[in-house]
Amino acid sequence: MDPILLSKVLKHYKRIEVQNEIVNAARNKEAVGSFEGHGYAKRPDTILYPNDVMEQVKNGVTSFHLSEETWQNPQMIAVEMKKHEYDKLRIGWDLVLDIDCPQWEFAKIVAWLFIRALKEHGIDAITAKFSGNKGFHIAVPFEAFPETVQNIPTKDLFPDGPRKIAAYLLDYISNKHVIVKDNKVTFGGRFSYDMKELEEKTHKTAQELAHTYCANCGKTTKTDTRRQIQFTCPQCESTIIGTEEEQYKSCPKCKIIMERSVTELGKKCCAKPKHTTRFNPLAIVEVDTVLIAPRHLYRAPYSYHEKSGMVSVPIDANRILEFEKKEAEADKIKFTHKFLDREEARSGEATRLLVEAFDFSARKNQRVREMEDVEKLEHAGMHREFDEILTAIPEKFFPPCVQLISRGLPDGKKRAVFIMTNFLSSCGWDYDKIEEWFKAWNSRNPEPLREQTVLGQVRYAKQQRKKILPPNCDNNAYYKSFGICKPDQFCRYIKNPANYAIKRARYSQRDEEKGKKPAREKKAKKEAKKAKE
Description:
Blueprint (H helix, E strand, L loop, with lengths): L2 H11 L2 H10 L5 E4 L15 H9 L4 E5 L1 E3 L11 H7 E4 L1 E6 L3 H17 L6 E4 L4 E6 L7 E2 L2 E2 L6 H17 L1 E4 L2 E4 L3 E4 H8 L3 H4 E5 L12 E6 L6 E4 L16 E6 L10 E5 L6 E2 L9 E3 L14 E2 L35 H29 L20 H7 L6 H14 L4 H14 L6 H14 L32 H36 L1
Antiparallel strand pairs: 1-2, 2-19, 3-4, 5-7, 5-18, 6-7, 6-20, 8-9, 10-11, 11-12, 13-17, 14-15, 14-16
Helix pairs in contact: 2-3, 5-6, 6-9, 11-13, 12-13
């Protein structure tokens, strides 16, 4: 080790306050040393006492890194363990958003927006620290999360939980707190930059900084340069799709040369495109939590950073915009703030964040599947056909899961809105009638949703002008996850709640027709007999 670096590292870690803070932060976590930032010491490892810190430093360790997960006994972790074995050993996990940005100005702005977004989800137990180099760590302790979500223990939702939360927050921030208008980008209603100025500061192009996408289908707009070559017979008018290389074809039926035409496929993304421009936060910032894997590590509070020579110091989350790097110099650090303050966390205060993140992920995955299906059909030269129901199916034909939703729900209300919007429209209900149903249903919920939340989904579906089936019965993110899957004998024959209602209604109509037919025949015979007399 370089003598100068060794001197600085020893001087820093000799402070008893530093040793105590690292020990406290490492409780129930893997605590792994790094040698000058070039690889880690043997894993798993722990730090239990202040003296453990100095022992590792004397052996060449320059920084300490902790697992996001908390364990019953970190020393029992083994690489060859299976997921259920990890889940059994894991106590929980902390949400640690690792926000890294080469431009210090934007690192502070983006970290500020993340904190703002967390607060808007009802979370108070937010702490922050300077990463030690180019960004910040924003954290919410596990104690703020609910015990279960979708009937799954929250402790087992690693790394999926933090990944989904990070992806959701990025989308939430870019939608709500970053506005792109008139070639200008405004962050949080406070910081505005011309696109040219932003390009110069970030060394990114305008296309990288902002994406144009369709608000209806969610698809990013891209110029489509594909062309379709078509040959048409001038006599029988039959058509054949050809390739760019083919200059002529002969009609198989008429045996004459067909006319060649070229169609530009263009860039229309859906039936009613509505293009808008949205800022891409990943163009200027990296949020490592999106890419985390099991046993992911982050730099411990008060750990030395080998590249910058600064310390990863906890800071006031409410004053992140005022923080300057000089406050993280080893001889200037203060011990006034905590990182991951578990005592201040309220149990369940992060429930809304976790549920919203999983709902967002489910909606996004379904939309991706729908777009993939459409693209496959378009590529094959086909069109998706819907057997549209023109008459509203009465509620008496609805499946058990929908009947349970109709009574009102303590949990899963937002997922229910998504289910019922697609279910009712697939069952022939017009959108005005669907809105009336939702208003009545929301009044039956123990804790009603905001009207904007309920009706926003309906109005979005109305703009789409296309019928989409609700999620299938075997989709684990719905129905079973909030306890409404109570199948009857008829459920075994169907895969989707809408199909249940449609088939039940048709069977009922068929039975009615069978009952009416003998009565009609009897009446006709009676009238014929009377006419003869």
